[in-house]
TrEMBL record:
Pfam families xref list: AXE1 (PF05448)
Organism: Streptomyces tremellae
Gene3D superfamilies linked to this entry: alpha/beta hydrolase (3.40.50.1820)
Family matches, as InterPro entries: AB_hydrolase_fold, AXE1_dom, CE7
Protein name from the UniProt record: Acetylxylan esterase
Domain Acetyl xylan esterase: 2-305
């Protein structure tokens, strides 16, 4: 069943999100501070029984120079030419998983980094990155940590870590820095969309059911998933709404979409009651670069599932092949 608007209405829908004053200055200062705190990635080889993929435990400096972990996977038979790369961000409450997970991208010839979202990994695939920054009272989960101030909001740290993941991959000798794409689903899709708006020169981006997009609309039409944490917080702290929405305006995917120029692909399920399809279309319509979207009529939060992955492989292959020809 539909969780939101029908498809004709989604094509007509436009988000009412307004960028807050100082949006660009806030993010410029945040990223400049993070980059000043350190650079580069430390790669530790991980012994596995794999014959075609090499796995490394990667650590790089994120927000505040805090150590952020991920898995870097490389095709073993990669020759001397620099590789295209994909940086992946995982879903809410999950983590980078184990060394044998997510082998598709390296098997397809990419350098592949999957980044931990700091402090997560307890609910699903395990994570290995802590969050050394505390916050004021929060609803259970991550979506409200430090939410009454943009400087302390949890996703300031996560989005900064995600940008630094791209920086780290671009700094690897085995990677062609001009052929780096970003990809994620749910929370990961929202993170990838933020990175697309913050990092120039990406080859492509794929945003599957992105979270933290068209947030005011999401809070009106869904009461599930991470958005429920925000409404729960506001229900308990009735006088905090103005501060909360001022903060969230600096993290809304629609704002990042307006600044993203890399070719972008969106995906949404019309039965998705976690990240409602209108919020995805809100970001899609605002997206500044070349773009496509697929709406899966009978699917929920999984959107196109493995078919989205196949689309991403095709789209990223075309985008990175163009970069290869330019070389």
């Amino acid at each position: 069943m539909l969780s939101d608007l029908d498809l004709p209405a989604l094509w007509e829908y436009r988000s009412g999100h307004q960028d807050p004053p100082g949006f660009d200055a806030f993010w410029h200062g945040t990223l400049a501070g993070a980059r000043a705190a350190g650079d580069g990635a430390v790669l530790t080889p991980v012994p596995t029984a794999l014959r075609t993929v090499d796995v490394y435990d990667a650590e790089f400096p994120g927000f505040g120079g805090h150590p952020v972990r991920g898995w870097l996977r490389l095709p073993r038979d990669r020759g001397d030419a620099p590789l295209p790369a994909v940086v992946q961000y995982h879903g809410y409450g999950s983590g980078r998983g184990g060394p044998y997970d997510d082998l598709v991208w390296a098997s397809a010839g990419y350098a592949h980094l999957i980044m931990d979202a700091r402090g997560q990994g307890g609910a699903h695939a395990g994570g290995a990155t802590g969050d050394p920054v505390g916050s004021a009272p929060a609803h259970p989960g991550f979506a409200t940590r430090g939410i009454e101030d943009k400087e302390t909001y949890y996703y300031r740290r996560v989005f900064t870590d995600a940008v630094r993941a791209v920086d780290a991959v671009r700094g690897l000798e085995c990677v062609d820095a001009r052929r780096v794409a970003v990809w994620g689903n749910s929370q990961g899709g929202g993170i990838a969309l933020a990175v697309a708006g913050l990092v120039p020169g990406l080859a492509a981006g794929f945003f599957q059911a992105p979270l933290l997009t068209d947030v005011r609309r999401a809070l009106r039409v869904t009461g599930t998933g991470p958005y429920r944490e925000i409404t729960g917080y506001l229900g308990a702290r009735r006088s905090s709404a103005d501060a909360v929405f001022e903060t969230l305006a600096h993290f809304d995917g629609v704002g990042f979409a307006r600044r993203a120029l890399a070719p972008g692909r969106f995906s949404t399920g019309l039965a998705d009651d976690v990240c409602p399809p209108s919020t995805v279309f809100g970001a899609y319509h605002a997206y500044a670069g070349p773009k496509t979207i697929r709406a899966w009529e009978f699917n929920g939060h999984e959107a196109g599932g493995h078919e989205d992955l196949a689309d991403a492989l095709s789209a990223f292959g075309a985008a990175t092949a163009r970069g290869d020809e330019e070389r």
